[in-house]
């Protein structure tokens, strides 16, 4: 009899733990991403000659037209390609979803192969797919060139993704979330970005902005300044983007950006990251990696880990360490997809931080 009572107590204890965990998950803040709904078509290069041929600056994101896309596709037809869901916000949201955060995504696709691929990938991870449909343009594609040193260069055909407009957005899309994550690639549509922020603020969300690419920052410097000074709560930038925005080196750039928003993060690649919130400044080392295979999604996954940490109520240092953990893993694979077994390993490592 005593044996059965002990077994029953263990079972009850197990279910109590599960119930506590379930309650914790349900109380976590939810994050919705706003971005270009893109599918990445990736190739690994033996040299950077094709970048010069296609007039794509190494390490940048360059918007291309349909003619340039066809030229790239002709080259890709002779090479081994890899297909994966992409887009800066899409990558970040997927990373958060894989960790167990409540997520959503707003974007625009066509009802075609790439659009359905993108939607299915979101739903597979439990992300609410708030995808609008374009009847005119095909879904967006990011042709992704991976250089021998792991650096990635994008030739991006936005297609349907670029037809997302201010009038497509509604207050209902943002209700139930605590954070809005915006990729900087969208800032060229000023009206749409301002409308999204207006609705998100009305719904009580904090605004997170990833600067996305140094050339976009240079082109839209005044608008980035307006957004960060007036609306954005959390800013993510790598050192090139931070310099394009402030004209300063990382530490000084961090100080400038942090005075404009609540939390500023400058990512330093292999040298880690620096974070500032008010007078608190933290430096976190990067996770050592033997070989960089592909830097696609490194910054996006850092943001995913950092924001996931915030939804859990972790310290800024732990948030940044989770970000470093994710970015260190994703640069060891092609594209921004990690296998399920790797996510289980990451979750265990997070619990031990």
Automatic annotation (TrEMBL):
Belongs to the carbohydrate kinase PfkB family. Coiled coil: none annotated. Residues 78-339 form the Carbohydrate kinase PfkB domain. This is Kinase, PfkB family. It comes from Bacteroides fluxus YIT 12057. The keyword Kinase applies. It comes from the Bacteria. GO terms for molecular function: kinase activity. Pfam families: PfkB. Keywords: Kinase, Transferase. The lineage of its organism: Bacteria, Pseudomonadati, Bacteroidota, Bacteroidia, Bacteroidales.
